[in-house]
Task: inverse folding
């Protein structure tokens, strides 16, 4: 049997950082979200017994490298740097970074205006990486996007740099008050399912993801979480 067609382990362990609504979060003690539904659909398609493991976001790549999980789905942006350490599936979601400020803020309107400002981010994210490139900015790192947004509401930072769909969901669906999104999307990013480098299950995941997309199940899950 060639390496690429190894029998997948049972359970098939999938890491996620479950404080990132609407992609992955806890509701009444249950794991839920777009990524969770998508991964369950992929698992069904590929005949995998998926076992989600809740890990800190900055612990996901180390867990993949240590092979204590078979895969991860966690709103993770496909980047060239990460792709040196791990493998990614085909992209499954288009996102990007946005700036959030308090509603009464009239001075921060775009990326340029963040120079010298206090910015909160989630640790280990593309938002954290972009924020640390801003000249003179003071960047505070938090374990979750929700904690970073709370810091903004509390007035201890001037802005949050975070994935736009997550910030918008917090404002529009989760009732976060006193915060608005300003400016253009800072980056265009694509989420991928992450696997250990050269995982024998990459093909399996990609094929199953393809069938979930082509069969219309992807669209149904998308509408459920983002639909009008
Ligand atoms: N998409 C961002 C990243 O990959 C944030 C992901 C997250 O916080 N779950 O860095």
Result:
């Amino acid at each position: 049997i060639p390496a690429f067609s190894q029998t997948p382990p049972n359970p098939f362990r999938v890491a996620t950082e479950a404080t990132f609504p609407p992609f992955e979060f806890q509701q009444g003690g249950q794991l839920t979200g777009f990524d969770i539904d998508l991964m369950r659909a992929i698992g069904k398609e590929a005949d995998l017994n998926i076992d989600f493991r809740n890990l800190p976001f900055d612990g996901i790549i180390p867990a993949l490298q240590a092979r204590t999980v078979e895969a991860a789905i966690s709103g993770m942006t496909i980047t060239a740097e990460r792709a040196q350490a791990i493998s990614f599936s085909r992209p499954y979601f288009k996102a990007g970074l946005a700036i959030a400020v308090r509603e009464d803020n009239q001075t921060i309107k775009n990326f340029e205006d963040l120079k010298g400002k206090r910015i909160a981010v989630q640790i280990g994210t593309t938002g954290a990486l972009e924020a640390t490139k801003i000249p003179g900015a003071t960047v505070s790192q938090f374990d979750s996007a929700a904690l970073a947004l709370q810091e903004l509401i509390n007035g201890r930072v001037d802005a949050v740099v975070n994935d736009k769909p997550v910030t918008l969901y917090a404002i529009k669906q989760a009732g976060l008050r006193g915060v608005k999104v300003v400016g253009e999307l800072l980056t265009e990013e694509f989420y991928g399912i992450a696997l250990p480098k050269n995982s024998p299950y990459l093909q399996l995941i990609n094929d199953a993801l393809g069938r979930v997309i082509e069969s219309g199940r992807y669209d149904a899950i998308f509408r459920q979480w983002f639909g009008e």
